[in-house]
Amino acid sequence: MPCWSSEADEAEAESVEAVPTLVFAFSEGVGAWAERGLPNATIRVVPPTITTDALVDTLRGAVWAERVVCCLQNDADGPAHSRAAIQLFRIARALLLCGKGQEAIEFVTVTEAGVAVQTGEIAAPDPAGALGFIGCLAKELPNWRIKAADIARVDHIGLAQILGLPRDPEGNVVALREGRRLRQRFTDCALAPVHESAFRKGGVYVVIGGAGRLGEVLSAHLVRHYDAKVIWVGRSPLSDAVQTKIDRLARFGPAPEYLRADARDPAGVGGVQI
Ligand SMILES: NC(=O)c1ccc[n+]([C@@H]2O[C@H](COP(=O)([O-])OP(=O)(O)OC[C@H]3O[C@@H](n4cnc5c(N)ncnc54)[C@H](OP(=O)(O)O)[C@@H]3O)[C@@H](O)[C@H]2O)c1
What we know:
Layout: E1 2-6, E2 21-25, H1 28-37, E3 42-45, H2 52-61, E4 67-71, H3 84-97, E5 106-112, H4 125-140, E6 145-151, H5 159-163, E7 173-177, E8 180-186, E9 204-208, H6 213-226, E10 229-234, H7 240-250, E11 257-260, H8 266-270
Parallel strand pairs: 2-3, 2-4, 4-5, 5-6, 6-7, 9-10, 10-11
Antiparallel strand pairs: 1-8, 7-8
This protein binds NADP nicotinamide-adenine-dinucleotide phosphate (NAP).
């Protein structure tokens, strides 16, 4: 079960060295916040819709920095091409186009409310969407020293505290809340003992998408262990590949039946006769 736990005792924060730093902010307010936290940094407030080419120009025009900070914005109402993940993608792409892929730059991302770590918090989908991409960047660009911080709000914390985080080679996000540093971990989950399966011996199961990967795994379980009659619903016509799956499962029990319907169409699904 995923849970967020404090890591204050487990890892010491890095000291914030005086390294040349370039900060990308997408609003004047966040730019001013960054400047207060790191007065010597070069701050670039750019529009959320800035293109990769314009970012390349910005990078070429800036004093070269060994640390790049991206303060991604949380704007679910903005146009799709201004989303946090897209901003991040464009900044990373611009850095690559400037030949920085092999350099040991420190790459810091700051998201607001991208994860829900304590009661009452709700993860905002816009910054949350950027977090998976940060993990990819960390794995694809091992030379980059990646730090990903998620904060409740920019005015709750100073930039220096974020920069002091240890790097994470996996690009996992660290949530900073009320002076605590929290990381997601997985703990064992004690489930109530199952006395009786919800599946019935000889039952009939309609599996929408049953011919897909997960559907096939579920169907194999139902056929093997419950002697179940499985009906697969999919939009495509019955293909040789699906027939091969049916034939394979038929070796273990009743052959799944394939019916063609679109689950989004109530009339189509209602017409499935078992
Ligand atoms: N595979 C994994 O490891 C994994 C892990 C976590 C979550 N998931 C999620 O579980 C779902 C299934 O994954 P999968 O890997 O089994 O995908 P998949 O192999 O692409 O199978 C999806 C199946 O759903 C059918 N389907 C799609 N839209 C449909 C519709 N409107 N009406 C009826 N059938 C429809 C497709 O057939 P037609 O195109 O012919 O309709 C296809 O057979 C996805 O949402 C996936 O994101 C998968």
